[in-house]
Amino acid sequence: MLDLTGKNALVTGIANNRSIAWGIAQQLHKAGANLGITYLPDDRGKMEKKVAELVEPLNPSLFVPCNVQNDEQIQATFDTIKDKWGKLDILIHCLAFANKDDLSGDFSSTSRPGFNQALEISTYSLVQLSGAAKPLMRDGGSIVTLTYLGGDRVVPNYNVMGIAKAGLEMSVRYLASEMGGQNIRVNAISAGPIRTLASSAVGGILDMIHHVEEIAPLRRTVTQLEVGNAAAFLCSDLASGITGQILYVDAGYEIMGM
Questions:
Q1: Which family does it belong to (predicted)?
Q2: 121: helix, strand or coil
Q3: What does the mean pLDDT of the chain come to?
Q4: Binding-site annotation: residue ranges
Q5: 143 pLDDT tier (thresholds 50, 70, 90)
Q6: Residue 215, CA distances (Å) to 136, 219, 221, 250 in order
Q7: In sequence order, what are the residues at sequence separation of 6 or more whose Cβ sits closer than 8 angstroms to the Cβ of residue 37?
Q8: Helix, strand, or coil (residue 147)
Q9: DSSP annotation of 122
Q10: How much helix, strand and coil, in percent to the nearest 5, is found in the chain?
Q11: Domains recognised in the chain with CATH numbers
Q12: Three-state DSSP class for 244?
């Protein structure tokens, strides 16, 4: 029943084979979606080569650079989608960043540049990309982003990223309200801790994972592919009545009091 055949899906945030975005891309491809992949460009082209080799088995029809701190690259990405696809059905937002120095110590010591950068990349980018995607989602669509429990509760060493995720979750609600009239649904997946390139910057990430394995009802954490399955569901007609929601995919950890 989960069929994304004929749907055009843009996936952001793939860095390596541990990325949650990679798990999502695999499951969208499995469901039949036509994929477009963005990568973060660098002077040496290292990331382009790494991501291109990784996603080759998924046969993406678009592969474009997109630094969300660069307005011209964002515009070029969506211009390319318009020219080559004509429309967009699915946008996957898996982008987050904070300086490592701002992910430890006292939250009150967060630097102004660090605070601004974390919210620009991790929160505002959803708003900007959704705004660019909106006119291309003429037949409706689905936008899915990734959040974490640290946006709702205090998590040691998460600090400024907790603020960014709280803003991201509220952005999901405002975007869902704005775009619902065009049959564009906007949701977030709150995934349990997974060892990724991004999460490795959070102090004690392995301790967090082990804690979830001990406390979560399923007595384990989740995998990238499990998050990918949830994303594919949210992007499909099976979730046609769901928008503005935070879906917890965390082995049940969120329900526990202690």
A1: Belongs to the short-chain dehydrogenases/reductases (SDR) family. FabI subfamily.
A2: helix
A3: 94
A4: 13, 19-20, 95, 98, 165, 194-198
A5: very high
A6: 43, 6, 10, 11
A7: 10, 11, 14, 25, 51, 55, 58, 60, 62, 63, 64
A8: strand
A9: I
A10: 50, 15, 35
A11: 8-249 (3.40.50.720)
A12: coil
Catalytic residues, by residue number, are: 148, 158
Neighbour tally for 122: CB within 10 Å: 27
Distance CA 28, CA 14 (A): 14
Strands across the sheet with 246-249, in order? 62-65, 34-39, 8-11, 90-93, 141-147, 184-191, 246-249
**Residue found by looking up tokens 């946008």 in the block:** 91
pLDDT tens-digit series, residues 171-209 = 999 999 999 999 999 999 999 888 665 555 555 677 888
Q: How far is 235 from 143, CA to CA, in rounded Å?
A: 7
pLDDT digits (tens, 9 = 90+) for 208-246: 888 899 999 999 999 999 999 999 999 999 999 999 999
Structure tokens at 43: 């002077």
